[in-house]
Amino acid sequence: MPRHLEKINVLRGVAILLVFSYHSLLVIFGPYEIVDFSPSWVWIDFGRYSLSRILLGMTPWGMGAQGVTLFLVISGFLIHWGFLKSGASFRLSEFFNKRFWRIYPPYLVAVLVFSLSLGTGGAFSLLTHLTLTHNFFDRTFTTINPSFWSLALEMQLYLLYPAFLLLRRWLGIGKATASVGTLTLLTIVIEVIVRPRTMAWWLSPLNLWFVWVAGAYFGEQFFYGKRIFTRGPAYLVGFFALLSLSTVTVVYPLLGRVLFSLFFICLLDWYLHRPASALTVAGRALFNATARVGLYSYSIYLFHQPFLHRAITFLSFGQTHKAVLGLVVVVVFALMFVIAHFTYYWLEVPSINWGQRLYARWQQPQPAAHPAPEA
User: Measuring CA to CA, which of 234, 244, 272, 344 is 20 to 30 A from 195?
Assistant: First the structure.
């Protein structure tokens, strides 16, 4: 595996750890994120919230929902970089065949598991989940599995990729990315004016298209050897510190994912261009372990919800001390890692292989029909 793809797996591991931590904190602390900015409409009301709650929301794990943002940036990077690396013209059938077999069969198994064990939320909920459109409706947004909204979003962003390639052909990569960014800003302005207050609107494909496209933009720069971020890691730390401070302002709910996507492409540029250096034994072990978590990240994503709450409650034996619950979260993640190991090799890998074989067979030229011999 190329070195930079190993590093991508490490970042995938970081992303799923952020998401898992975020969901675990919701179990331990309840809804801790602060989204009430009245009466100033700019800052939170510091007098209404405890300092510990404010600081929790400013930590990396407190902002763990941005793990989804990192996943989207990585997805855009890999899809577009892979397309450029192939040197071939874009083929819809090949692109969607790969995406379908990579994503849908394991997802279908997860939908069936949770539908049979916990219920579907109704026929409409099941139908929208099977068609990956449940994120368009507030009443189905979190049914079956509350994490699945981002998978539906991912598939819809795949559908938008050909449109982005057309924009890129007409305008160039820079202007195409800027156009998508302008569209995202317009949707945010509509949010401010109309204030629909629905998850289906806040987390819609148009609202998050730029996040994915930012990754694609970096993928093109990386392919042609162009740097985006040439500063040292201290600047990344400063950037992250500013993002942490933004959680107490209205900037975070409105522009948080956009700003984090910019931070993540800077992080990617710095990390992927870092020269390979000899790691200590402990460093190499941590690198490999995180890369393995990243390899299993899709299976962890599929199956860690919605049993996480039940698993933490069951294994804590009624304990409510936060340190005890933190240790339980580690145990639950270890169990989830073991499950993901098997689902990766039993579901993900066979699905990819089946898709490759079926597509190769479908692409094989059919033998020409021979005329029947004359009587």
Answer: 244
